[in-house]
Structures are given as structure tokens and as C-alpha cells.
């Protein structure tokens, strides 16, 4: 993308006024997206993005700039502007970069750009017909296909120089069921950090039927009960609970400025002794895995909570300076247009010792949250609110009736303390997480868990 020699010159120019760390990031990304609504292709977008950024740090000060022009003259001019934005004594600094080869945790077998569009459309049609034919109550099915191929070059003033390639492919089905008076929606999606081999793991017909099954089930469900109730959260998609209720509050972007409920709590109990949690960017093939972060640091397996005790945070370079701690290889950003900050990768509650059947049997009256919709959280207070896409009533230790319109809300600090049981079967679910450094692929995981009490709302 650019030569190592040019990268050395750019970093040297950025450091010319006394900065103590600089990095140059170059990116070339190709994206494709298609949407099919009721069997008709109504959107198909392809595009390429190309640009570069320079970031300069001095202590806890930061200057960041980017450009679409990666010529030598433009890159050096950008570095000089960054340097002049940080006032200091002019001085020269020679930087020597050493190329490093990153570990590759995610192998792509079939590069999406090599697959004909007609084949992608065929998979979409197969999912659509399966979704619509599931029931007469299905009135709409929307199929989405996306792939992204991101190539980056990164060099830092501490000597790192390397390239990385990140390929992501996703496929989703949204079915709408209606009885003429009310609509209910079901979503089913699959995503891998890899290519078109996604369809060797996931069957489009099964995905279409699964989305429609959820929509129809919720159409004929009873309204959700309300009040403070025990809640059992299913494995896989339930991982969004930890992501929102706790994960954001453990990122240094919140912790370093004292804006997190978990600031200065290392070594203290913040959760039930049943809870051990990790952020692990090294899991082979997982959606949120990274080979190297966007600050040139290798991906890590980072222990956050151990048996309820807070053990660590997710820390980027700038956050590390503010906190007096070491970075953990989680400085991430969507593209060259964003400055990196601390972000989750694959965040999960570790498996426990409880059997799923025993977890359900322990609830006399409560809610089983099988599939989650959207959710929000406030890192400063740990308050959260989730829509539950598919939920069921638990009565006398058995899952009984489907219920619709359920939401769960509460405070992360309380909910973590109220985790009573943790199952054995860990599963992950991927998605996109938006924050200060853009929208990024992340995976959330957990086994089945039981929370003794949460506030449940309904329609």
C-alpha cells in the first residue's frame, strides 16, 4: 500500500515537534451489500474505500487526521500538520520499522469477490422461498447478504510494521407474520470472519424457516407478564446481555475518565461467584477475532472477571496512558476515518457447572429469553434495556407458553450479582457494535444463565 521507507518518513515527521508515539494506518476496503424484499432485489451496493490516517500522542494528548491521498507528498504533509497541531520543540527523530508477520486466526476458503453475483442471489432466493412458504401468516420476507474485504497496512513508532486482511461475510432473514391486525417479526442471521464458505455451515432454507417460525410463534403468543421476575437467558444470542450490561463499562474509554461504574474496582467483587468472563480476540474463525489490533498490538485473551472478582479491563494505548496500565490489544476502529479506542472482540461468560434442565427446573414462575433483539446500556450507571424477540413463560420448572413484547431492564451491577446458575454449553452470536471508533464486528457469548430477578416489561 505504501512503502516501509515512506512509513518511516511519515512517522518521523509526525514526531518532529515532540510527540512520543505516532502511527500510520492505510486501508483499502471493498464492500458488497444486497437486499431482497418479497422476492425482488431492491438494493445492490458495491463500493471501495481507500485512505490513510496519522495519529500522534504525547502523554495523554492526541491528534488524529486522515486523507484519501496516499501519495508520498500528501502523507508527509498530513504528518507535518499533525505535528504542528501539537505544539512543542522542533526536533528530528529517526524511526526504524521492522516488518512483522501476524498470526492468522481466521482463514478464508472462498473469497467473496470471486463468487458470481448470480450465485449469491440464488442463495437469497432459496432463503426467501423457505421463509414465505413456512406459513400463510408470513406476509413479508427480507433477505440480506453482505461481504467486506479489508486490507490494512499499519506502522507505529515503537517499530511495528505489518499488513492484515480481514474478510467478513453475513447473511440474514427477517420474516414478518400478520393476522391482519398485528405484525410480529422474526430474525435469523449468520456471520463468519471468512468468505462464501459461510454457506457450507449455514443452510439458507433452514435460516428462512427459523425466522418465520419465530415470527409466527410470537404472532400467537400471549402478552408478556410484567414485574420483577426470575429470568433465564439462553446461550448464544443471550451473550448480548453481558456485552451491554457489563462489557462497555469495562472498556478503558469509559474507565479511564472515571465514567464507568467499574472504575477503580480491580480486585473487588462485582458479580456473583458463578461469573467468570473473558474478552478473547484469538478464537479461531470467530466473528470478533482480530490478528492484530489497529494500534499494532497482537490480539489477546483478556480475563475480565474471575469468580465474581474484577481482574482487568479492555485497554487501548491512550487509555493505558491515562490509567497507568498496559494496553491489552483491543484498540480497534471501523476505518481510517476513525481514531482507535478500546473495543470488545469476542466477549463471553465462561461455562459453569449447571445443567440447562436444572436451570429451567429451578424457576417456579419466570421468563425464558430465547432470542434478543436490540439493546442499550449506560456505562456510567450500568443501566440496560433489552427487547426480547422470542420469549416463553416458565411455570413450575417447565417452559410453557410463548410470550410477546417482553423487555428486560435493570442495572448491570445488580444483575451480575444476581446470577444464580450458569450452564455448561457456551455458544456465540455475532453482530455489529457501534461506539466512538465506528461500527465493528463483535461476538457475544455465554452458556444458559439464570438471573434471580430482573424487571420485565411488556407491551
Structure write-up:
By secondary structure, this protein is an alpha+beta fold. The protein has a domain at 227-457. Helix content is 20%, strand content 42%. The protein has 10 helices and 23 strands. Strands 1, 2, 3, 4, 5, 6 and 7 form a 7-stranded mixed sheet that branches. β5 (138-156) and β6 (160-178) form a beta hairpin. The termini are far apart. InterPro entries: Metalloprtase-TldD/E_C, Metalloprtase-TldD/E_cen_dom, Metalloprtase-TldD/E_N, Peptidase_U62_metallo, TldD, TldD/PmbA_N, TldD/PmbA_sf. Residues 226-458 form the Metalloprotease TldD/E C-terminal domain. Residues 112-219 form the Metalloprotease TldD/E central domain. Belongs to the peptidase U62 family.
Amino acid at each position: 500500500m505504501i512503502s516501509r521507507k515512506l512509513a518511516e518518513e511519515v512517522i518521523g515527521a509526525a514526531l518532529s515537534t515532540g510527540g512520543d508515539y505516532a502511527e500510520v494506518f492505510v486501508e483499502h476496503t471493498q464492500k458488497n451489500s444486497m437486499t431482497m424484499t418479497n422476492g425482488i432485489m431492491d438494493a445492490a451496493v458495491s463500493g471501495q474505500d481507500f485512505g490513510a490516517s496519522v495519529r500522534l500522542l504525547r502523554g495523554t494528548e492526541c491528534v488524529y487526521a486522515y486523507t484519501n491521498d496516499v501519495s508520498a507528498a500528501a502523507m508527509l504533509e498530513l504528518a507535518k500538520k499533525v505535528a504542528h497541531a501539537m505544539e512543542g520543540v522542533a526536533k528530528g527523530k529517526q524511526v526504524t520499522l521492522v516488518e512483522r508477520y501476524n498470526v492468522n486466526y481466521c482463514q478464508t476458503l472462498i473469497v467473496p469477490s470471486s463468487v458470481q453475483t448470480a450465485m449469491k442471489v440464488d442463495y437469497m432466493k432459496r432463503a426467501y422461498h423457505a421463509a414465505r412458504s413456512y406459513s400463510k401468516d408470513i406476509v413479508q420476507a427480507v433477505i440480506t447478504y453482505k461481504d467486506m474485504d479489508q486490507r490494512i497496512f499499519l506502522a507505529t513508532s515503537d517499530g511495528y510494521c505489518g499488513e492484515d486482511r480481514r474478510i467478513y461475510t453475513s447473511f440474514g432473514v427477517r420474516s414478518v407474520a400478520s393476522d391482519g391486525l398485528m405484525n410480529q417479526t422474526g430474525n435469523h442471521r449468520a456471520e463468519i470472519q471468512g468468505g462464501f464458505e459461510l454457506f457450507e455451515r449455514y443452510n439458507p432454507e433452514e435460516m428462512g424457516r427459523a425466522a418465520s417460525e419465530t415470527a409466527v410463534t410470537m404472532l400467537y403468543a400471549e402478552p408478556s407478564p410484567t414485574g420483577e421476575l426470575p429470568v433465564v437467558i439462553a446461550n448464544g444470542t443471550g451473550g448480548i446481555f453481558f456485552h451491554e450490561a457489563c462489557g462497555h463499562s469495562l472498556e478503558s474509554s469509559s474507565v479511564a475518565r472515571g465514567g464507568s461504574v467499574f472504575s477503580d474496582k480491580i480486585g473487588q467483587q462485582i458479580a456473583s461467584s458463578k461469573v467468570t468472563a473473558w474478552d478473547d480476540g484469538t478464537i479461531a474463525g470467530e466473528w470478533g477475532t482480530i490478528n492484530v489490533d489497529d494500534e499494532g498490538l497482537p490480539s489477546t485473551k483478556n480475563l475480565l472477571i474471575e469468580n465474581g472478582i474484577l481482574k482487568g479491563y479492555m485497554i487501548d494505548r491512550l487509555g493505558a496512558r491515562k490509567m497507568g496500565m498496559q494496553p491489552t490489544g483491543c484498540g480497534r476502529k471501523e476505518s481510517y476515518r476513525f481514531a482507535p479506542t478500546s473495543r470488545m472482540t469476542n466477549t463471553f461468560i465462561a461455562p459453569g457447572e449447571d445443567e440447562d434442565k436444572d436451570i429451567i427446573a429451578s424457576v417456579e414462575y419466570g421468563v425464558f429469553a430465547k432470542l434478543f433483539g436490540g439493546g442499550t446500556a449506560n456505562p456510567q450507571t450500568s443501566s440496560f434495556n433489552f427487547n426480547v424477540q422470542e420469549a416463553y413463560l416458565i411455570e413450575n420448572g417447565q417452559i410453557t407458553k410463548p410470550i410477546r413484547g417482553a423487555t428486560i431492564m435493570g442495572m448491570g451491577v445488580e444483575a451480575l450479582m444476581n446470577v444464580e446458575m450458569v450452564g455448561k454449553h457456551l455458544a456465540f452470536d455475532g453482530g455489529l457494535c457501534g461506539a466512538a471508533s465506528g461500527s465493528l464486528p463483535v461476538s457475544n457469548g455465554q452458556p444458559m444463565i439464570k438471573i434471580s430477578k430482573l424487571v420485565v416489561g411488556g407491551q
